[in-house]
Amino acid sequence: MAISIRDVAARAQVAVGTVSNFLNRPDRVAEATRNKIEAAIADLNFVPNASARHLRSGSSRTIGLLVPDITNPFFTEVARGAGDTASESDYTLILCNSDEDPKKEERHLKVLIEQRICGLLITPSFEGLAGVAELNRRDIPTTFIDRRADSLDQSSVSMDDFHGGKSAIEYLASLGHKSIAWVNGPLSMAQCADREDGVMDSAKGQNIKISKFQVSQMRSQNGYEVTQNILASIAQITAIFCANDLVALGVLRALLESGKSIPKDYALIGYDDIGFSASASIPLTTIAQPAYKLGALAAQMIINEVEHGKNFKHEQIVFKPELVIRASTQALSK
Amino acid sequence: MAISIRDVAARAQVAVGTVSNFLNRPDRVAEATRNKIEAAIADLNFVPNASARHLRSGSSRTIGLLVPDITNPFFTEVARGAGDTASESDYTLILCNSDEDPKKEERHLKVLIEQRICGLLITPSFEGLAGVAELNRRDIPTTFIDRRADSLDQSSVSMDDFHGGKSAIEYLASLGHKSIAWVNGPLSMAQCADREDGVMDSAKGQNIKISKFQVSQMRSQNGYEVTQNILASIAQITAIFCANDLVALGVLRALLESGKSIPKDYALIGYDDIGFSASASIPLTTIAQPAYKLGALAAQMIINEVEHGKNFKHEQIVFKPELVIRASTQALSK
DNA sequence: CTGTTAGCGCCTTCAG
DNA sequence: CTGAAGGCGCTAACAG
Fold first, then answer.
1. How far is A60 from chain B (nearest CA, A)?
2. Which portions of chain B are predicted below pLDDT 50?
3. Among the four A24, A240, B140, B294, which has the fewest Cβ within 10 Å?
């Protein structure tokens, strides 16, 4: 049978309550007693049972992290950040991957509720917002990652996607490019829509022609496939901006296979700054997002909210992404 | 206050035991009663409390997955496989990342024990084996992923690394290469040691010269850095075999930057077949490992073990990796 | 087929 | 500073 706090108490010749105190508020236990209990715990190899603790205390010290694509290095970095921060504060993190499937998202949310997570970190898909409402109804604090919260009653840690889109085009413009392909993902994703707004906004002022292309999923293969359309475009495209690095990497491969030279024939910019961008065959210029930091901060915020309860001030933090210049872009040679 | 099974019972005008039956063995509840309970659950928005259930039933239906590097696409695929399988059987998966740090590994193991996981999936580092012994002492079934179990009392799902190393060299030999660089990771990892045995074994019979190089961590950056040594080698190296794709990708970048042409100047082979290999600028020939399947099968096996208890037959499953030929290799042009 | 009941392991008063 | 007692939400007998 599993050994419990009671066995420890017996072994250490103290009452169970004392052992509990030792576990949770060691300062209230005399040193001599403390030593006895420590010894007993070591002898018995006792480890407290989290379920029992949760049940009794009402708090699970567990937070959920639900991401849409664990395969995307951006999200694994977010997960690392959140996981490290949770660990430091002695929280357990349950990481769930929805594979961009609303069904799976729903299911994971249900499991997380069963686990009585005390907080949720999520990058909600458009459809996923319904599930999130459910969490709200249960008063489970939720903070959005990489998507701005609409309500002031909710925290979020996101990026200024408008600015990101805008600065990529401005940079390209400063290089002399005037006809740019913009390869975007689904507009149902707020990130994509905002980046596009930034793109169009900056193009407007500068007499730049934007040719829009679209991929259904923001993965490498989709970028590879869409490249044919870019090459076939009648616009004299000299630069390509992709909504994320995965797509850009796919585009890069397709271009090289077609005998094009980067950055000579085409300047290429991605978005995210995943690790593979720096070590791509042609290191990718990109709009960097501090993924680890996003995850770490979001975890910190939700922990604060969980611990401070009602008198917690919700914040919508927005980071500015940063242009990272590498080898895939250069001034238009004319 | 949280609503419980008791509230549901009151609302549905039945006893708590009946509600419990409804939840766990619906077939033992009459249809009429079932409907009443269903309605009550919906009205009240009731979701059972997993902690209470675990505490009472003794089984947590939770399995842990501890990987050494969540940043490596190989492991995210493993995680996807394990996660999907766990979900299907209504198990909760707790994914932990040790970042190849024994301290973190230890800590996660402790948390997992607190959670009373009923099974553990792990790719143990050399040092991590101590922690695993702890699990054994507690009779928590553990199955190794990507590392063969030494004991017959334990399951594992691993790859035949000897074969993988061997077949890469054989393939290169068949292409006419006679002087090959072998870039390995730490020999303390069983995978690396076995691959090296395969490499040396197949080289021996064929009058092939292997020049050994080593990286401390199997990441892209390390491959990039070690390439200088390869280029500086006095051996007339014509092919390079790397212990994983991440390293190979780093080597590839360094080679291209040095003006080398792949596969003309050097044939290059990686290991794992992560997604980025296929879409690298020069698609990588590699030794493919079915990561998703590894994870899925391991999860299935541990679930079987958990559910069948003592009369469970442990298995050490070993997959054969497969050579995937892409553009980064060609016959030696002489 | 349904109802009753006794804990699972722990934490938290509240007296001593 | 320590000890005794009650109960968190649920399940698993067992009795009706």
1. 9
2. none
3. A24
How many H-runs (helices) and E-runs (strands) does chain A carry? 13, 12
Cβ-count burial B110-132 (b if 16+ within 10 Å, e if not) = ebbbbbbbbbbbbbbbeebeebb
Query: Structure pTM?
Result: 0.92
pLDDT of residue B135: 84
Q: Which of B163, B119, B165 is nearest to B143 (CA)?
A: B119
CA of A86 to C1' of D5 (A): 35
Strand partners, B133: none
Three-class SS of residue B169?
A: helix
How many Å does it take to go from CA B17 to C1' C4? 8
Where on strand C do bases come within 7 A of a protein Cβ?
A: 1-5, 7-14
Q: What pLDDT sits at residue A334?
A: 59
Nucleotides of D under 7 A from a protein CB: 1-5, 7-13
Q: Which residues of B touch A97 (CB under 8 A)?
A: 79-80, 83
B115, A92: Cβ pair inside 8 Å? yes
Question: Contact B331/B171 with Cβ under 8 angstroms?
Answer: no
Q: Which nucleotide is nearest to B53 (CA to C1')?
A: D10
- How many residues are there in chain A? 334
Assess contact for A327 and B253: CB atoms under 8 A: no
- Ordered by where they begin, the domains of chain B are 5-48 (1.10.260.40), 60-159+291-320 (3.40.50.2300), 161-289 (3.40.50.2300)
A96-149 residue pLDDT tens: 999 888 889 999 999 999 999 999 999 987 666 777 888 888 889 999 999 998
Nearest-CA neighbor of B322 among B278, B290, B291, B287? B287
A29 CB neighbours strand D below 7 A: yes
